[in-house]
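Task: encode each sequence below as C-alpha cells.

Item 1
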Amino acid sequence: MIRRKLIEDQSHDADYAGWIARTIGANGAILKGLKADAVLRVRALLMAGVDAPASRSVSVIIHPATQLASMIDGLGESTVLADFGAFAEAVLQRYPYAAPILDELGDAPKLREQLVGVWLKNARSSQFDTANPFAQAAPQLDDYAKAVLSDEQAFRLVIGVVEAADWGARRAKALRAESFASTPTIREMALRQAEKKPKASAALVEKAFPGTKLVAFLTDELDAD
C-alpha cells in the first residue's frame, strides 16, 4: 500500500520528495517491484540528494549513505546495481568512509570492489583534500579491513598512503610517521601479503618508488623486523 500510494503515485511530486527519501532510508525494501516509470523518478530523486543531502550526518535516514545501505539490505546488490547503479556509484564516490555502507557490504561483492577502488585511488591522491580524508578515516576503516580488503589491497593502500605522504599530505605523513600503528589490521595484512607474494609485492614497490627494495620499504614504512 505504501509502495503504491507514496512511491509510485507521488514520486513525481516534489512536495513528497522528503517523505519518499525518509521511507527509503528506513526500509529500502519499499522499492521492490516498482514500475519502470517509478524507478526512473525515484532514481532522479535519489541522485538529486547525493551532493546536497538534507542532513550532514550519515546516521540520519535521509542521508544518501544510509539510503544506499538500506537499499542494499532491502533489495540486494543485484537489484541495486540494475535499477540504481548510478546512485550507488555516486554515493560510494562521495561518501566512501560512511559506516552505514560498510556495514552492508558483506553480501555485496561488486559494490565492495567499487568501494575499494575508490579507497585505493584516494589513498595515493596528490590532492591533499582527497588524500588527507582517507588517511584520517583509515583508523576507522581498519575495523572493516578483514571484511572488505584482500591482503594485496591492504598492501596497495599502504603504498598509496606513502605516495600521498611524499606529495606532502599532512594526515598521510602522520600515518606514515607512526608506521601505520593506528591501522594494525591493514598493517598486518600488508606484511602478510609481502611474505606470501614477495616478487609481486616488490614489483609494486618498485613501480611506486623506483630503486626501493621490498625489505627496505617494509622496514622503513611498516617497522618490520
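Item 2
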Amino acid sequence: MSTSLRTLDAIRLFRHAVVDLLKTANIDGIGNNVFEARMKNAWPEETGLLVVYTTITDFDDKRTSPRFYFSDTKVEIDVISQGEEDSTNDFLDNVSAAVVLALQPVEKREGPFVGTVKRFVLKSFANNLSSKGEIDRGTQRITFSAEWTCCVTNGGPTDNFLTGKTTIAMGDGEGNKQEFETKVGT
C-alpha cells in the first residue's frame, strides 16, 4: 500500500470514528442526524443536524527512518439549526456544548478515539448569526485540531539520513590510516 493511501485511510478511519461517536452520543435535537461531508441541503423536517469535515491535514516526516508521518488534521463540525425561530442561538450553543463534551471526555491512557489520535483539542467556534436580519437557518462551526502519527513500514521511501565517515590513523603517515563509512537508517 502506498504512503498516500495509508495516510488517507487513517484520515478516513478517524473521520468515521468522530461521526460514530457523535451518533452514539444521541445529542438532543440532533439524534442520528450526523453526516460526513454532506453535500445536500437539509430537508425542512430536519430541524437540527451535524456535518463533520476533515478539511486540512499537514504532514511532517521529521526525517525519521522508518518513516513516521506526524500529522495534524483540522476537524470542522457544522451545527445546523432550522425552524428553531427565536431560540436558534440557544440551540446552536447547547448542541455545540454537547458536541465538545462528547468529543473531549477525560482522556484515557490510550488517548481519544481508542488510540487513533494522540491529541484532540478544541480550537474555535464561529456562527453565521447576524443582527442585520432574519435567516432561515443558523449554523455554528466548531473547529478541533487532531494530532496523530502514521508509520509507513513497508514500501515507503528509504532515507539515508544519517551517515558517519570515520578515519582511524596510527601515526602521521599516509599509509597508516583507515577510512570507513557507517550508514544508519538504510
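Check on item 2: The chain has a mean pLDDT of 77. The chain has one domain: 3-158.
End of task.
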